[in-house]
Design goal:
The chain is of the alpha/beta class. The chain contains 14 helices and 9 strands. The chain has 2 domains: about 170 residues, Periplasmic binding protein-like II (D-Maltodextrin-Binding Protein, domain 2); about 140 residues, D-Maltodextrin-Binding Protein, domain 2, CATH 3.40.190. Bound molecules: fe (iii) ion.
């Protein structure tokens, strides 16, 4: 082997290695592995870009990103709840991006006004009811669940979960703190049982007749309906005459110290496309954030509804206030 040839071979190899290194995206993901793996595999097949996923719970992932600082290998943070995304932005962990594609695909109320994160799926936190005990005509709004007619008939999940903190934060954004506190107190007065630890338990208690109405994320109902199509529980879209259904997002942002920011943005843009959105939302029976993407048939069967269009970042901004308000209102 001549020296020249050898040098060329080494240089060639190293440039291939560099090209491969550039074609990689590292995602810190709080979304369950089996929900996103098929999607990422499809992206790799389509583009050749390798995606490495580090999966964990929302809190620890955020802590890890914070602790790693500029040394983080993460290019994208993918997490659930606008409260968590807002938190990540507040901590300076995300980069501002300006993308015509993302801004065109994701409605304004489902993304950070500052461009640091984008909602990728919509989760509706809605009312459910026992179909043997309640007629949908008896239901109207979240606020009405505090009406005396629902006394000892309401089930709620614990106020410790970010989902309810976000719900209450958005109510504060709409009604102000005083009115919201009165609504929460009226809910607490109507509880049929102490708050449950998860949404599934709320649905099961409603199915069992322990309570007649509850508030849950719709995909939990979807999952149970898939297993038990004759479950006597249905969804009701509240507040269609006024504010709309409370929605939250799972979403993502490019990290501030991304090693592959260009490739990360491209992946994010692809995730917002009609095609990817169908898979992203459908895998968890959520609603696509991109309104042009098709909804899973099981979910579509629940009918169209008007979403609350207050920007979901309010859920983060007002989270601490919501936690204190629920505590004072006696919502455990
Ligand atoms: Fe969930």
């Amino acid at each position: 082997m001549t020296k020249k040839w050898w040098l060329a071979a080494v240089l060639g190899l190293s440039s291939i290695t560099q090209a491969q290194a550039a074609e990689e995206v590292v995602v810190y993901s709080a979304r369950i592995e089996n929900l996103i793996k098929p999607l990422f595999d499809a992206y790799t097949r389509e583009t050749g870009v390798k995606i490495t996923t580090v999966t964990g719970k929302e809190g620890p992932l955020l802590e890890r990103l914070k602790a790693e600082g500029a040394k983080t290998p993460a290019d994208i943070l993918l997490t659930v709840d606008a409260g968590n995304l807002w938190q990540a932005a507040q901590l300076g962990l995300l980069a501002k991006v300006d993308s015509k594609i993302l801004n065109g695909n994701i409605p304004a109320h489902l993304r950070d006004p500052d461009g640091q994160w984008y909602g990728l799926s919509v989760r509706a936190r809605s009312i459910i009811y026992n179909t043997r005990k309640v007629q949908p005509g008896e239901l109207s709004t979240y606020e009405d669940l505090g009406n005396a007619k629902w006394n000892k008939r309401l089930c709620l999940r614990s106020s410790k979960k970010v989902y309810n903190q976000s719900l209450v934060a958005m109510m504060i954004a709409r009604h102000g703190a005083e009115k919201t506190a009165a609504i929460i107190q009226s809910w607490v007065a109507n509880l049929a049982a102490p708050p449950f630890s998860d949404d599934d338990s709320v649905i099961k208690a409603t199915a069992a007749g322990q309570c007649d109405v509850g508030i849950v994320n719709s995909y939990y109902l979807g999952r149970l309906q898939k297993e038990q199509p004759d479950l006597p529980v249905a969804i009701f879209w509240p507040n269609q005459q006024d504010g709309g259904v409370h929605v939250n997002v799972s979403g993502a942002g490019v990290t501030r110290y991304a090693k592959h920011p260009g490739a990360a943005l491209k992946l994010l843009e692809w995730l917002s496309s009609d095609k990817a959105q169908k898979l992203f939302a459908g895998a968890n029976l959520e609603f696509p954030a991109n309104p042009r993407a098709p909804t899973d048939p099981l979910v579509a069967a629940w009918g169209a509804f008007k979403q609350d269009n207050i920007n979901v970042s309010e859920a983060g901004k007002r989270q601490a206030e919501a936690v204190m308000l629920m505590d004072r209102a006696g919502y455990k």
